[in-house]
Predict the 3D structure of the following.
Amino acid sequence: MRPPSAAVTAALTVPLLLALSACSHESDRAADRTTATAPGSSGTATGSASAAPTYPTFAAQDYSYHLEVLCFCPQTGTVEVVVHDGEVEQATSVDGPLAGSPAPEFARLTINDILEQAHAPGIAKKKIEWPDGQDHPSSVMIDRIAQGVDDEVTYTIKDVQTTVVPQG
């Protein structure tokens, strides 16, 4: 017996929609880049017209780091992210299938973008590994939908190097 075409369409569409929802996109991030002092950091809190986050953030505004994104999304390998004035300036895949290429949009994240996603309203579960005395987390796991399939994402943060930008 042949299944009705609506059932076939649903069977093919639902997994595709779940896969697409697993990775973050630029629209998932709020426009406000307000930061506060992170545990163990010596930075000062900064603010904007809106309230500062109620969770710890990474105080540095100029830095580079290596990011690995594990999700039900295209695998990029390790991405080197360069952040200037709190915004991603450059993100390049350094290994894996896209080595040497610009990283896809879902991997163009500041550390605070990742923390913001973890603390977004409606997140079912999060696990943030933030070693004592370190001014940034080393891993952030986000499960966006309770008992959902393929919506989890884990960000691994390594080799964070703050940079000093000359004034003048």
